[in-house]
């Protein structure tokens, strides 16, 4: 078994991650290459970030050209690329409740959610000035919204939260996909945040019924509805926005991971009624929306929002799902398969360690990442081909067989 170590390569990095010994130096398309020139087929895409794969020459050229001109400007001045990207994003939202929205750019998913919470609280303070207790924020079990204190307070995972108690006040958790629990959203709630498809939590797909009931309950009580599409947005499900898989629309939308294919860029899309309550100085960022990140962001947006690109994601995603469902038929170690587009997960049976699967795949040149509930998460670049998927599936099948043998003989 591979040894995961936090100290093998560098003792100067804070030991927050258990990493394998490989040191990756470059990549091309859906492959990463390590220092020993070993190639790895990448089903992680930097955790749903490198949507257009690695080493994309168009992106490299844009970065090169823009780096020569202007990398950073601060938000003290206009920057044509941030303005342009915001316009492209809002244009893509025509025909939805966010058709008249405005955009705040930041650098990460957790920052996008922090921004959304602040905007929601400002909205409540402004629109309900006589309701000082309307500041609660509701999230759902198995959600992941980030690591900064407010985002962490909305991420009900004991392992992540407990070392950092006390968390921020005013955060509450309800059951995901449980319509009955929604009656607990009351007039003290200023916002509810939900991932239409939970990523870190184990590829858990919200039901239509739940999303519809959630929107209705928010409308009844006056709570704002925030969709966290940091992992499931921007083409990952075969739709530009994850919520387009439902008949429900949000008041605020948070995005990040693939927006600049790996350069830090996040965004909060703020619906008009909320945007109207935000004034200069309410929030800010030094780096957010830099000319470099947003110019790349425009390029990525254009390519991913192309209907042909999106329909290919749906087609390839369906293929990946079917291949995993076929694996589940032959392997007793797989309990269930879930997914939409190129966001697919399979849950291993209880007591079957996902780390064994991840490590054995790595040894055989395939990168996968686990997620909550004993799940293997497949979030490859959105440009992955059927051929590449088939190569990965051959390895998965082999690894499952090896695991069966090891588990039967009591070796872990
Ligand atoms: C749904 C969701 N929200 C928020 C975050 C936090 O994003 P970041 O790691 O960029 O802060 C993540 C990261 O995995 C995520 O998947």
TrEMBL record:
UniProt KW S-adenosyl-L-methionine keyword: no
Pathway terms, separated by semicolons: Amino-acid biosynthesis; L-arginine biosynthesis; N(2)-acetyl-L-ornithine from L-glutamate: step 4/4
One Gene Ontology cellular component annotation held by this UniProt entry: mitochondrial matrix
Keyword line: Amino-acid biosynthesis, Aminotransferase, Pyridoxal phosphate, Transferase
InterPro entries the record matches: AcOrn/SuccOrn_fam (IPR004636), Aminotrans_3 (IPR005814), Aminotrans_3_PPA_site (IPR049704), Class-III_PLP-dep_AT (IPR050103), PyrdxlP-dep_Trfase (IPR015424), PyrdxlP-dep_Trfase_major (IPR015421), PyrdxlP-dep_Trfase_small (IPR015422)
The keyword Transferase is annotated on this UniProt entry: yes
Gene3D superfamilies: Aspartate Aminotransferase, domain 1, Type I PLP-dependent aspartate aminotransferase-like (Major domain)
An example Gene Ontology biological process: L-arginine biosynthetic process
EC top class named in words: transferase
Cofactor(s) for this UniProt protein: pyridoxal 5'-phosphate
Main location: mitochondrion
Subcellular localization, as worded in the UniProt entry: Mitochondrion
Record SUPFAM superfamilies: PLP-dependent transferases
A molecular-function term among this protein's GO annotations: pyridoxal phosphate binding
EC number(s) given by UniProt: 2.6.1.11
Coiled-coil stretches noted in the UniProt entry, renumbered to this chain: none
Top-level lineage group: Eukaryota
Family under the similarity heading: Belongs to the class-III pyridoxal-phosphate-dependent aminotransferase family.
Protein name (record): acetylornithine transaminase
Species of the source: Boothiomyces macroporosus
Upper classification of the organism: Eukaryota, Fungi, Fungi incertae sedis, Chytridiomycota, Chytridiomycota incertae sedis
